[in-house]
Amino acid sequence: MDSTPSNPASLEEKRHTLAHLLAAAVHERFPHAKATIGPAIDNGFYYDFDFSSTDSSDGTAGHKHATPTEADLAGLEETMRELLPSWNEMLGTEVSENDARSRFAKNEYKLEIIDEVVAKGEKLTLYTAGDFTDLCRGGHAERPSKDIAKDSFVLDRIAGAYWRGNENKPMLTRIYGLAFNTKEELEAYQAQREEAKKRDHRKLGKELDLFTFSDLVGSGMPLFTPRGNIVRSSIINYSRELNNELGFGEVHTPNVNKGDLFKISGHYDQYKEGMLSVHSQYVEDEMFLKPMNCPQHTQIYASQPRSYRDLPIRYSDFAVLYRDERPGELSGLTRLRAFSQDDGHIFCREDQIEAEVESVLAAIQKALATYKIEAWMRLSLRDPQNKAKYIGEDETWNKAEEIMRTLLKEKNITFKEAEGEAAFYGPKIDIMAVDALGREWQISTVQLDFVQPSRFQLEYTAEDGAKKTPVMIHRALIGSPDRFMGILIEHYGGAFPAWLAPVQVRVLPISDKQGDYAQEVLTTLRAAGIRAEVDTASESLGKKIRDAKMQKLPYLLVVGDKEITDKTVSVESRDHGKLDASSVADFVTKISQEIKDRA
Fold first, then answer.
1. 453 and 532: one domain?
2. Based on the domain organization, do 393 and 286 belong to the same domain?
């Protein structure tokens, strides 16, 4: 008989089921543990447990492994595989509140969940597989033993996690697992992750001397070294170049602003928890470090009368922004408290929306092609079931969302829709970059805003003399240069293309005898605007080459007696190996064109 299930389980259902299987294995080996919640996640699953129980009625008091360690993962994983064949089906049963409370009478975490489910008027369900029963709302593999391959999952690591993510609640033990449809997919993910560790921008940033952090400065506040600032500035300058092509005028706005500005924009009500407050010795105004530039740009627009002939008006801004991120969410350059954006805002008429959005999307696509990063687009919409998160009327939102949807369709742009991902003032097109390891990052965005211009009472004089409210388009090209730099370090594995590289060329004299000629070559390179240096260390040529390769430099120029005689350099490319010997002038021409083209 065919054992294939009629409704094959999705990967998410398999992962959710494996979370239950993990809980069952923990119950087998650590009977005193209190299971809490265990969802599926992007690469597998986890389950949170409280191992602090002092109840000795189960005979485990004084157990030498009262809380599991990494060393226990192999045993738990073995138990999961031993249990899996007996999990022939996953049966859900609706139960009364009293029955649910009776079953979990000694588990305060499950009782809290029961309270919430009852308060919402939802049904309580228990799911049983083998000898294990758990409280759950469903979404599992119906026949785990058939649906889940024994070699398609592994337990990965142990971490601490506050109950419900609240630091004022108990600290639990979280056990993570990896899970995929097949062993091959699991191994491919593990290999990708190992490569990601090698490319970790925090590790490479230190090795390549690009940036640092200091406890005295503050968490999430990056300090860029001279080399790192070259990379960051190169990213910003390219965005500036694209802004110029689009007709943006760059502005500069202050970091500290009165709270009243953010009350009008809506950020005060919607975003205050993420803003850093500032206090003055001389005025009583409530003030904040700005988390975004859009409210300030409305005030530049409002500083003088505007006509329909003036529109569109485009402002760009690279000011530093500040957001009060939770300590546990900070991650190198990819999640910061202080960062800039290649920010821009367009004030336009409704009939200009399509052309403006189209030109911005084209610039974003040009940038990503230059950086050699693939991407896809997401239309982020309001959550219709949670309108309190947003400002503006239904009619305005429906209009804005349909404009963006229609624009993408008319331009034959493939996109996915995502409810609940909109900005609080309007829908947006998010550009989801895919790096060399296949990981997705949200970077660029184009947001359509009918709300803030109205709240700030912005206007322009229409052709018929009437006063009208402009539309505001928020956009970024690559998002935060700081964050994007972190992404690029991992995307390139630290091997920046020549136009981005902090040091584009290193000259390597074979010995001290070639020192003068090496300096002549260096002078010529620098005169041409090439970022170059000479290795004057009293080391062997082999060591100098190894050191240069560790720094992932695009080009090495070796000079010995023959090169002095021929007035040439021996060229070695990081990406293409040894090249033909070249005159210095020819090499300068070649690399200068490569840098200019951002090849």
1. no
2. yes
